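cron nightly-structures :: item 1 of 1
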Amino acid sequence: MQKGIKERKLKETRDLLDSYGYECYDFNEFFESLGIECIEIIPPINSTVYCLKRADKQWAALVLGNKKPIVDFGKYIHMWGYDNGYCLVSVADEDRTTFANRGIIDANGKEVVRPYTYNDIFNFYGKEEPEIVALSKENRIVGLDRNNPSVVISKNPFRK
């Protein structure tokens, strides 16, 4: 993801908080007011769900304005950020050879692509590709529908 996209999304969130009457220039201050201390915040792209990482390295997902996360801290080892209502998640630590522990959740925290369904699902946060790229159990590249990632729409998104 281009660095500018994340900064632009964070500025949009600051403006939104200002419009709600919060004079919050530090996101940690805002989330601390909800009882959440974060070391990393990933703003959503075309979504309303933020991914938050605490100092203990546990992740959660929260809709701005709600006090209760839609995904509790610790359910996933890593969250890459919501883009168009979906987020790539990991249920186990990854090394350079194992990525099958990745899945995709929707804006309600429901798994739409369960972990271990594919050998890998590539990060799609902030990407412009029309499809989510995944590696099947047969080690074939497939394209998943960005509007419904449970649906395979192409056998090879790189070959048109």
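cron nightly-structures :: done
The helical segments are 3-19, 27-32.
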